[in-house]
Write a structure and sequence with these properties.
Layout (H helix, E strand, L loop, with lengths): L1 H21 L17 E6 L12 E12 L6 E11 L9 E9 L4 E12 L11 E11 L2 E11 L11
Length: 166
């Protein structure tokens, strides 16, 4: 009977230790959250669909670039980005996550990019290249713990030209 209890305790301890090890972050602090100076996160749409696609509906691939500027005195690592469109726009971007392991030095910046599937269900006057409001949640790790940055901004193929149709 004692052997079975000892084996059970050993297995339980091993399970707990492995669970703790799997929640470890690069900082070694697991899921501990911290408050650092927020990084600047800017998302830009790189894709441009041809004018012939102006009135199309259906699936389209969209290429994005994300610039992350580290304004803190600690090195940070971008671990993942969650993106989705909000409200009405040229296309719909369903919620999705893109993993990264991009280190960003203090007072430095890095650029990452990714492709995301989107859907045009109702073409706008701007066509498929029109503006879309994107919500991003960027997840970071640092030597002092983990944190996230939430950004909402408008993107499309020609930043700064929101008032000019194709």
């Amino acid at each position: 009977m004692m052997k079975k209890q000892g084996m059970f305790v050993s297995l339980a301890a091993a399970a707990i230790l492995s669970a703790c090890a799997s929640s470890q972050s690069e900082s070694g602090l697991g899921k501990a959250t911290v408050k650092l100076v927020e990084p600047e996160v800017i998302i830009t749409q790189l894709s441009v669909l041809p004018m012939i696609a102006r009135d199309m509906t259906g699936n389209i691939p969209i290429h994005y670039q994300v610039r992350v500027a580290n304004r803190s005195g600690e090195p940070i690592t971008l671990t993942r980005i969650e993106v989705r469109s909000i409200g009405q726009g040229a296309y719909t971007l369903t919620s999705q996550t893109h993993p990264f392991k991009q280190k960003i030095a203090p007072s430095g910046y890095e650029i990452v990019d990714f492709w995301a599937p989107a859907f045009i269900d109702d073409p706008t006057v701007y066509g498929a290249n029109g503006p879309v409001t994107i919500r991003t949640v960027a997840h970071f790790d640092s030597p002092v713990g983990q944190f996230e940055n939430v950004t909402v901004q408008q993107v499309h193929d020609r930043p700064g030209s929101e008032s000019q149709p194709n």
